[in-house]
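haha ok so turns out i had the wrong file open the whole time. this is the CORRECT one, sorry everyone. sequence first:
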Amino acid sequence: MNGSNMTAKEKIHILKRGYGLCHQLAPTYILRKCAASLIGTVFTYVGIYLSGMIVEMITEEKSLHALLVAVAAYAILRVLFNEVLCDVIALSKENQLSGGFLAKAKMLITEKCAGMDYAHIENPETHRKKQETENFLYGSDSRWHGIERLLYETQRIFQPLVTILIGLGLCFHALLLTPARTGGFAAFLQSRWAVPFLFLVYGIICFMRMKLSRRTGKIWSDHFSDANANQLKREHAFYAVFFTNRYQRGKDVRIYRQKELLLHEFERIEKQGFDICKGIMRKMHFPDFFASGASAILDAATYAFVIIRAIGGMYSPAEAIVLAMNLSRIADGMMDLLDFKVDYWDVLPANIKHIFDFLDLANEKYEGTIPTEKRSDNKYQFEFHHVSFKYPNADQYVLRDINLTWQIGEKMALVGRNGSGKSTLVKLLCRLYDPTEGEITLNGVDIRKYNYDEYLALFSVVFQDSQLFSFSIAENVAADTAFDRARVESCVKRAGFDARLAAMAKGVDTCLYKDFDEEGVEISGGEVQKLCLARAIYKGAPFVVLDEPTAALDPISEHDIYTKFNAIVGTKTAVYISHRLSSCRFCDHITVLEKGRIVEQGSHQALLDKNGTYAALWSAQAEYYKDTSEELFA
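then structure:
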């Protein structure tokens, strides 16, 4: 949507929300900018007056001492206005507010991303909207087309209004002087009728310039609303970060000689961006050229008007200079007001709307109100009732007609080939998504009716791609800056990380990775999973899920982790998900998924005896495991 497609009511609503957002992020920011603008405008006119006074002193052949005093007075006033009043009182504080504005704006986006439905996180459209929001809220585009532009335009309408009012006040007497007795066009320019004629000329030229500015604004607006241009910015940001921040990938880049591939892609994006900018500049060349010409015509009209009047004896040289400079300021103010109409009214609302399109992105998940039962016996039972699911905007179902009961206190396994829907089923269980059809119940109640935060508190999940952050081990395990140190150390040891921890001088205070701490440690994939297990233990939730967290490990290491965690889980309800059947052999109940459907259920031996899908998978993996089966299942 561009500005021309929005109604006046919609524009007013968006601009009002924009000011509300500005006030939320920096309450006195606009006031400070207007104060700085007022100070600058007043000093401009003070400077014009002092310039005229100095010229008058020169024409009257005043002493050098008097001239030096006037120049010194000008310098002192400039320091007073620009350095003291403007920089110290207004702008320095404004810069502090600007920094706070930036930090709060980034936090606003971060909080929005952290609180939105997981379905939005996996949706590319969300990432496009997020990119646009960052551009218009605090990115490089915000200065010219976003929130910063809104602040600038607010200051801009204040400044030309003050400029015009002060200028007219100072020019009023000079414009209404009795003309000299001359004939022809010069007589007209010296008459009082010339004043409205001059301002009519101003108005016509400013209106033409506004039309050209509107065309320029549309060019920019179309560019910043273009999906391809925004996609290009996202790609540029990705490769820029890839080369500078993602040092963990440096090994692959070198081993597989990926540098040329990455540089080729980066150069391609740079070239496309340059071509886009070149095209924009080409489109803007004509309106920019004539907009500059309009300014030159205004200056020419102003000086012609003043010079002819001065030649007619209406003004002294000093008065002529002051009047010409004042009129130029008034003309600039008029142009700014009309440009303001284009930039503020025609362009800004559509750009700012992009921000609220993202911030207003609604969470569709019903979060429920029923509190979950606080059971000391951890008796929780989950059931899937004819559950089917397909991802948003997808045509194919990932899960079809799932009917499943996970009994209290049992150890269950969910197995199947890659892509059979195992991880998706966990996402539904944890309410990262809601079923497309059917329902999931906890102790007989639809899980959508439970308070969402309380419901999530029931789960400790270790995903295949679980992440650790560049924080201390303790903060990663506790998932908080406040933690029970003894409990963290116990959980880390129980997860099998004790040997590595003993070698770390700072213990659980050791920072992971080197992003922020040069003494940070790099850990292996297996060690990452052990710390993720420790995190799950620390949470102490009654329902535990291991979603293929050890897929990258060898069978013996995987079995060791599963066996260790099986002992840690104890009597809690646990679900083990793996495509390696041997790792889940100790489970009470095994469910086999195939192409999104449950094809078999039962114990390990029962499924082997059935000689169906599970038995076929087991036989296919038997050769792989034969060298370790004696050790694993002794």
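The chain has 23 helices and ten strands.
again sry for the mixup
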